[in-house]
Structure formats: C-alpha cells, structure tokens
Amino acid sequence: MTVPPLKKQRTHPETGNARIYEATASAPVNIAVIKYWGKRSEALMLPTNSSLSLTLDQDQLQSKTTVRVVVDADGKENDAALWLNGNREKLSGRVTALLARMRALRVAKEAKDASIPHLASKPLLIASVNNFPTAAGLASSASGLACLAFAVNAALQLELPPADISALARLGSGSACRSLFGGFVAWDMGSKPDGSDSVARQVASETHWPNMCALILVASATQKEMPSTAGMQTTVETSPLLQHRIQAVVPDRMVAIEKAIAARDFDSFAEITMRDSNQFHAVCLDTFPPIFYLNHVSHRVISLITMYNQVKSKSNGRKYTVAYTFDAGPNAVLYLLKEDVAEVLRLVNSYFPNGVDAASGSAVDEYYGLSKQFLKAGSKTVEESEKALEAEVSKGVKKFEESGGLKRIIYTTIGDGPRILGAGEAGEDVSLFTDAGVPK
Ligand code: DP6
C-alpha cells in the first residue's frame, strides 16, 4: 500500500493568496482477540504483551478526519485546533506529542530539500467524525487516532510507509497502531528499550477468510466505565495474574492464533478468542481495587453462546460456531462465519426479547448496519429447526426477560485499512471544513 500524495492545495477565499494544504482520510475500528492490557513504558506507549485484532469494515464503523495546514494565514506557529464530532476539544497530551513527532519529521524533510513548501510549523486545523453514533457504545480511540496519524502524514506530505504511521498512531492510543492495516493484525510487543521493534503488522489480508464476520451486541450500560488507560495502569501495578498472563500465556497464544488464522481453523480461533477475553476480564478482577467491565447482560451472552455452541456441535460437528470477546465494557463482539449469522441473530433476538425501548415493540431497540435483513427466518423448515434448537438451548439458559438487555446489534465484516478520501475524483469535496475553515 502506498500513501497517495497531497489531496488538495487550494486558495483561501478570505485571505486571498493563502494556500491551504489538506487531506481527508478514513480509518477502521479493530477488535482484539488477544487483548492488549498493560504498558511497560507509558512515555513510549509500549505494551507488556503482544496482541492481535481483526479490522472491521469501514462501511459500518469508521472515523473520518480532515487535517488542514494553513500556510500563509495568520496564526501562531505550531498551533493546532481540533473538533471532534463538531465540538471544539482541547488537544490531549498524547495528541500534542503525536503532532510534535510528525512535525519534527517534516522539519527534517524540509531541511533536506529547500524547494518543498514550509509546512512543519504551520497552524493545523483538525476535524474528526465517526460514522457510528457515540451511543453505539464502541470505543473510537483506535480508529480516531489511526485516522489522525494517517491524515497528518498526507497533509504534511511525509510519505511514510504504513508501518511508520502505525508506530506514530501508537503514541495516541496503543490499540490505534493495529487500525493502520486491514484484515488480521498483530502488534508485536518488541523488546528494544526505544520501542522501535514494537510494531503492528498484517498477519492476513481482509480477503483471506472471506466468510469471517462479526456481530456487535451493544449492552445497555448505565455505569460509567473505568477508562482503559487508567485501568491497565492499575492492573500493571497490582495484579499478579497479569504477570502470569504476560509470561506464560500470551506468547503461546499469539503463535497458536496466527496458525489458526492461516489455516482458517475456526474451532481453534474461537477457543483462543474466548479464553483470552475471559483471562483479560479475570486480570481486571485481579486488579486491586477490582475493575468490572462485564455486567449481567454480558454474563448472559456468554452463557447463551456457550450453550448454543454445545447444542450446535451435535449437529454440525464443529466444537464452536460462535466466539465471544469483550473489551473494556459490557458489549459483546461475536466472531462467526457468515453462514451462521441468521440463526445466531434470531437466537440472540429471542433470548433478549425486551430492548431498552420495549414500548416501541421491537425486540431489540435498534439495529444498525445490516442486521435487519436477517431477522425473518427464510422458510418453515428453518423456523422449525430453529425452534427445536431454541428448546435445547433453553435447557441451559433462561431468557433475559428484564427490560434493558441489548440496545443494538451491528453486523459487519472484516475490512481494509485507512483510506485517503477524494483522491483522484476531481471536484469531489470530502473535506470536513468549509473553505473558511469552519467544521461543516
Ligand atoms: C481492552 O488502546 O484504548 O480494547 O493505549 O491507553 O490508549 P491506551 O489504551 P487502549 O486500550 C485498549 C484495550 C482493549 C484491548 C485491545 O484493544 O487490545
């Protein structure tokens, strides 16, 4: 993958000859199956263990960012202004550090070639939006920071390869380094003190396992969760179980899951995924004071999937049909094969009959993405076999009759890495800013 050149150079309508360099990019969300939890260096954002994630399709979930460099207009050197989903935000220390690193790379480039425009210290305007509602209950820091690093690389014409952009994105948020690639992505923890070997790499592309997909079950959360950054720091300081995980568990799991992915071996992939999610949450419980990310809805999802896998294995000969995984919150991400989506979706729907808004009459409050298309069973035979399956499953798990179980279900597939938008399509305006520099 090569990074396309500068997207635009246009004349500022108010300042006349002011030149504006800008780029607009999009970047995907990734959900880990081997979890990153813990830093060995906060300053360099280096992890205590390697991790591995799947990149999700940007059509359902993506961040989009425009970075504009204002060359001749008034403005303080090295200034930057940031808007997130239309609201002006202060730059965090990490974003400031990320921008400083990228500007330093531009300084070096300009020092080597006097003929290129002087962009390094010019004011930056940054606008970022997500195509999924914040209320979807999904963290947007990985896609958001990957997108920022990708767009700054283009706007400042740094021409860095994706691996280098990934290392920069890591400074914004650890998990962001994996969103620079599509498909199946490992983040190798590395061992060098300067972090130069702590890099993300693509294990397999988005087309490698075409029937792999994901269902995101958004659980209604009333409680505010402990942010990942603070949570993992306390875990590093207090959990003996984390040390065992780092030394004795993750290294073998990384090898095993890469093998499972290469062989498209769903049974192995699923078991490692579920075990790793379980251990991550066990490590959270072993933190002192403990951290609770799973709630009673999450527990019920785990029981339902466990029971379903058991019942299903009798007829399809596979050990697992669905794998669950949970990040720092109660939402479940289910990895499964496309041919099983319809049945699983209807099963989940019937076990969580009362959505947040039970009054609206829909079993689950809101469907997002492509879920709706699966809700009706195709035929009488399908309906009958699903009824029999449900009867079996219900021997092991009770329906969640309370209201406020699941809020939303998002169906999505495995997708590609960041994109520069509008490149090559003359006249297409993808900018998140008006010509006057106001977020649209
Ligand atoms: C549970 O990347 O959000 O999602 O590096 O402090 O920004 P910081 O943390 P963050 O942590 C993600 C933790 C996780 C697991 C994972 O994505 O691997």
UniProtKB/TrEMBL annotation:
GO terms for biological process: isopentenyl diphosphate biosynthetic process, mevalonate pathway; sterol biosynthetic process. Keywords: ATP-binding, Lipid biosynthesis, Lipid metabolism, Lyase, Nucleotide-binding, Steroid biosynthesis, Steroid metabolism, Sterol biosynthesis, Sterol metabolism. GO terms for cellular component: cytosol. It catalyses: (R)-5-diphosphomevalonate + ATP = isopentenyl diphosphate + ADP + phosphate + CO2. Its EC number is 4.1.1.33. GO terms for molecular function: ATP binding; diphosphomevalonate decarboxylase activity. The keyword Lipid biosynthesis applies. Residues 27-200 form the Diphosphomevalonate decarboxylase-like N-terminal domain. Pathway: Isoprenoid biosynthesis; isopentenyl diphosphate biosynthesis via mevalonate pathway; isopentenyl diphosphate from (R)-mevalonate: step 3/3. InterPro entries: GHMP_kinase_C_sf (IPR036554), Mev_decarb (IPR005935), Mev_diP_decarb (IPR029765), MVD-like_N (IPR053859), Mvd1_C (IPR041431), Ribosomal_Su5_D2-typ_SF (IPR020568), Ribsml_uS5_D2-typ_fold_subgr (IPR014721). Residues 214-421 form the Mvd1 C-terminal domain. The keyword Nucleotide-binding applies. Transmembrane segments: none annotated. It holds the Pfam family MVD-like_N. NCBIfam families: mevDPdecarb. Belongs to the diphosphomevalonate decarboxylase family. This is Diphosphomevalonate decarboxylase. It comes from Chytriomyces confervae.
